[in-house]
Specification:
It is built from 5 helices and 7 strands. By secondary structure, the protein is of the alpha+beta class.
């Protein structure tokens, strides 16, 4: 009985990282060039993307830049490895005591939005952070003048990423 339990436990521990590897997100495959053009309301260049294992989990990064300078879409996901900083705690630490962070309801396990830079123009950046399980998602939109529209587009992109988890 003990050997059966020990063998089952060992198999489960070995299979856990393999399961995490199955669910790895490639942001450039999830958020297409057409999605980026829709979010930025402009033609964009081909994505600059990278996927890699890091010390604290798996990372996928993807940036889209408009053909005409001034607008960009920044996408990130960290899928935390076992024993690493939990995404929910990471978001709590980032937003603690910072009144610029506004909680976003009904998106992932926890989500927050922050606006940086001037009210409008190329320096204006909207960042949406979403936590779901072991995943920490970042969607950044810069240079889009209509903040309400940018917020909705960021949420739409985040939901598309969440659907792949």
């Amino acid at each position: 009985m003990r050997r059966t339990f020990a063998a089952a436990f060992a198999l489960a521990v070995i299979a856990l990282p393999l399961r995490a590897a199955e669910n790895r997100i490639d942001l450039a495959a999830v958020i297409t060039k057409a999605d980026a053009e829709s979010a930025l309301a402009e033609s964009v260049k081909d994505p600059q993307a990278r996927n890699e294992d890091g010390a604290d989990g798996y990372y996928s990064r993807c940036n889209y830049y408009s053909e005409n300078p001034g607008r960009s879409l920044t996408l990130r996901i960290r899928q935390a490895g076992p024993g690493q900083l939990e995404p929910k705690k990471q978001l709590e630490e980032m937003s603690a005591g910072n009144d610029k962070f506004k909680e976003v309801a009904k998106l992932g396990d926890k989500a927050a939005l922050v606006r940086e830079g001037p009210a409008k123009g190329p320096g204006h950046v909207l960042m949406l952070y979403v936590v779901k399980g072991n995943a920490f998602i970042t969607v950044g939109i810069s240079g889009v003048p209509d903040e309400k529209s940018a917020t909705e587009k960021a949420k739409t992109l985040a939901k598309k990423i969440l659907s792949k988890l």
